[in-house]
Amino acid sequence: MREFWVCTRCGSLNRMWPIVAYKCRLDKDHASLATVGPGAPAGVLTPGLDDEHRQDAWALMASRKYVSAWRLGRVAAGLILATLGAALSR
User: Fold this and answer.
1) What letter would DSSP give residue 52?
2) CA torsion sign, 76 to 82 to 86 to 87?
3) Which residues make Cβ contacts (< 8 Å) with residue 15, sequence separation at least 6?
């Protein structure tokens, strides 16, 4: 479990090891302790998309043209390399 402390003056969330708040530099003595437990057992597909909405997501992707992020990344890498090659050939 990770532990944090919250500054009572500025409301900043700080890790346990700093002794002052990062925003207002108030001492850790003027704080409230927060403990964060382990995450949910079932992973979240994307923010706001859980097992209940999986079928809706597949229906939306089937009805529209879906472009994979990997495909877009490869196209971007190719364009970057082409631009670099053109710049170096001058």
Assistant:
1) G
2) positive
3) 2, 3, 4
- Say whether pTM exceeds 0.85: no
3-state secondary structure of 75: helix
CB atoms within 10 A of CB 30: 13
Q: Is 37 left (phi over 0), alpha (psi -120 to 50) or beta?
A: beta
The per-residue pLDDT string of the chain (90 residues; one tens digit each, 9 = 90 and over) reads: 567 788 888 888 887 777 888 888 888 887 776 666 665 555 445 555 667 777 777 777 777 676 678 889 999 999 999 999 999 988
Q: What is the dihedral of CA 26, 32, 33, 39, to 10 degrees?
A: -100
